[in-house]
């Protein structure tokens, strides 16, 4: 199904590339990409694939101990795409990326809301000053939320 979803996308249309697959990989224009479906990050083949950085985007492993399972599996660093408890650093690029150190292994990329607001707020505060503020976030619903307008009888 991954190959089909890559090749045919409702929003972006048909991907202009040769896409093939087998049980263990996707192949795009002749470049093989290993694919696995392993629930426990400690069991992933990061060492065998010589993976340097893992982008943890499942939303399931957002604290240091859980994300560190990727390190145990052989990755050198983990970037969590959400707020994370116990991360070595929480970074919003363009705002505080200068705090990153080579020694950091578990890094949080904060939240999507923070990444939208912080760069703009930083410039406004620096140039004009912000005494207080209010913002509203509007984004698509996720699988763990119910739609208000859901069909019912």
UniProtKB/TrEMBL annotation:
<dbReference type="InterPro" id="IPR036291">
    <property type="entry name" value="NAD(P)-bd_dom_sf"/>
</dbReference>
<dbReference type="InterPro" id="IPR020829">
    <property type="entry name" value="GlycerAld_3-P_DH_cat"/>
</dbReference>
<dbReference type="InterPro" id="IPR020828">
    <property type="entry name" value="GlycerAld_3-P_DH_NAD(P)-bd"/>
</dbReference>
<keyword id="KW-0560">Oxidoreductase</keyword>
<comment type="similarity">
    <text>Belongs to the glyceraldehyde-3-phosphate dehydrogenase family.</text>
</comment>
<feature type="domain" description="Glyceraldehyde 3-phosphate dehydrogenase NAD(P) binding">
    <location>
        <begin position="1"/>
        <end position="112"/>
    </location>
</feature>
<comment type="subunit">
    <text>Homotetramer.</text>
</comment>
<dbReference type="GO" id="GO:0016620">
    <property type="term" value="F:oxidoreductase activity, acting on the aldehyde or oxo group of donors, NAD or NADP as acceptor"/>
</dbReference>
<dbReference type="GO" id="GO:0051287">
    <property type="term" value="F:NAD binding"/>
</dbReference>
<dbReference type="InterPro" id="IPR020831">
    <property type="entry name" value="GlycerAld/Erythrose_P_DH"/>
</dbReference>
<dbReference type="InterPro" id="IPR020830">
    <property type="entry name" value="GlycerAld_3-P_DH_AS"/>
</dbReference>
<dbReference type="Pfam" id="PF02800">
    <property type="entry name" value="Gp_dh_C"/>
</dbReference>
<protein>
    <submittedName>
        <fullName>Type I glyceraldehyde-3-phosphate dehydrogenase</fullName>
    </submittedName>
</protein>
<dbReference type="Pfam" id="PF00044">
    <property type="entry name" value="Gp_dh_N"/>
</dbReference>
<dbReference type="GO" id="GO:0072524">
    <property type="term" value="P:pyridine-containing compound metabolic process"/>
</dbReference>
């Amino acid at each position: 199904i991954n190959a089909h979803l890559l090749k045919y996308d409702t929003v972006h249309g048909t991907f202009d590339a040769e896409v093939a697959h087998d049980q263990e990989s996707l192949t795009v224009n002749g470049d093989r990409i290993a694919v696995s479906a392993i629930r426990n990050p400690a069991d992933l083949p990061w060492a065998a694939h010589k993976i340097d950085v893992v982008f943890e985007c499942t939303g399931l492993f957002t604290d240091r101990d859980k994300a560190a399972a990727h390190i145990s599996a052989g990755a050198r660093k983990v970037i969590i795409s959400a707020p994370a408890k116990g991360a070595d650093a929480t970074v919003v690029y363009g705002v505080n990326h200068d705090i990153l150190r080579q020694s950091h292994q578990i890094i949080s990329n904060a939240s999507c809301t923070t990444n939208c607001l912080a760069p703009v707020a930083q410039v406004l505060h620096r140039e004009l000053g912000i005494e207080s503020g209010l913002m509203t976030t509007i984004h698509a619903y996720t699988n763990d939320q119910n739609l208000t307008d859901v069909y019912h009888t």
